[in-house]
Design goal:
This protein is α+β, with helices and mostly antiparallel strands. It folds into 2 domains: 126 residues, Probable inorganic polyphosphate/atp-NAD kinase, domain 1 (Rossmann fold, 3-Layer(aba) Sandwich), CATH 3.40.50.10330; 137 residues, Probable inorganic polyphosphate/atp-NAD kinase, domain 2 (Tumour Suppressor Smad4). Helix content is 16%, strand content 40%. The strands form 3 sheets. It has a 6-stranded antiparallel β-sheet with strand order 7-6-17-14-9-10, with helices on one face. A 6-stranded antiparallel β-sheet has the order 13-12-11-8-15-16, with no helix packed on it. Strand 3, helix 2 and strand 4 form a beta-alpha-beta unit.
Length: 279
């Protein structure tokens, strides 16, 4: 690889010391690199796809998993692989640590890497079942339907492939990808799933019952969630994008786009999981 685009979270890389180090090393090795400071452009977009130069082979992301997720969402249409440089905490998606920065860049320049394809999901908010689409967005981790306003339990009706599945009395419903299984879904009691697998995971948030469990579905299934309430919202990877119409709902399916994540290490997912849980 010789052509790079660098996305930097300035709240993680204060003073841009790591960004400057990356840019200098790449240029010293005959590479081209354009640096972008990640700031909100519009509609929760932090990196505009049309700002990426033609011929870019890799997007380097300096920040934490949140920065990586945002870049994957913003740039999914471009189908360019991403490599994360970890400036955060857990670092499930960011493969490179600061103390191994230069050797990792050398491996990348020499094309010694592998790629993971991570499935994404799309959520369409509709004014009624099979009705007009009011809002659509995609997520790498999860789509969450949740209440707003004062604290109270809401009933969430969940259907799969047009057939009613279950009603949950809960604070919200998480629909996550395998990548998102180690994020909010895990905190809500959901299962940990190998990130390269293809499936959808439904997990209720604080269900008002003794026997509600997560449900794991095929990636090809279509999930529809409604509440009959006017004060529920839909968030994509933690960013609220739309209110849910009282007569409508949100239709969640596998996205036609994937996130291509570069790996420089051959650690298995279980080994990474062990290391993260024992840090």
């Amino acid at each position: 690889m010789k052509n790079f685009y660098l996305v930097v979270n300035p709240t993680r890389d204060r003073g841009l010391d790591t960004a400057n180090k990356v840019e200098t090393h790449l240029k010293d090795n005959g590479c081209t690199v354009k640096t972008h400071i990640s700031e909100k452009v519009e509609n929760d977009i932090y990196t505009a796809a049309d700002s990426i130069p033609e011929g870019t082979e890799c997007i380097l992301v300096i920040g934490g998993d949140g920065t990586m997720i945002q870049a994957a969402r913003d740039l999914a249409e471009l189908d360019i692989p991403l490599l994360g440089i970890n400036m955060g905490h857990m670092g499930y998606l960011t493969d490179v640590e600061k103390d191994e920065l230069i050797p990792s860049l050398n491996e990348l320049i020499a094309d010694r890497y592998t790629e993971d394809e991570r499935m994404m999901i799309t959520g369409e908010v509709v004014d009624r079942p099979e009705g007009e689409v009011l809002c659509t967005d995609r997520a790498l981790n999860d789509i969450v339907v949740h209440r707003r306003g004062y604290m109270r339990v809401i009933t969430y009706d969940v259907s799969v492939n047009g057939k009613f599945l279950k009603s949950y009395r809960a604070d919200g419903i998480i629909v996550s990808t395998p990548t998102g299984s180690t994020a909010y879904s895990l905190s809500a009691g959901g299962p940990i799933v190998e990130p390269g697998s293809k499936m959808l995971i439904i997990t209720p948030i604080c269900p008002h019952t003794l026997n509600s469990r997560s449900i794991v579905l095929s990636a090809e299934d279509q999930i529809y969630i409604s509440t009959g309430e006017s004060d529920t919202a839909v968030s994509y990877d933690g960013r609220e994008r739309s209110m849910l119409p009282a007569e409508g709902g949100v239709r969640i399916t596998r996205s036609g786009k994937v996130a291509r994540i570069i790996r420089l290490h051959d650690d298995s997912f279980l080994n990474v999981l062990h290391n993260k849980f024992t840090d």
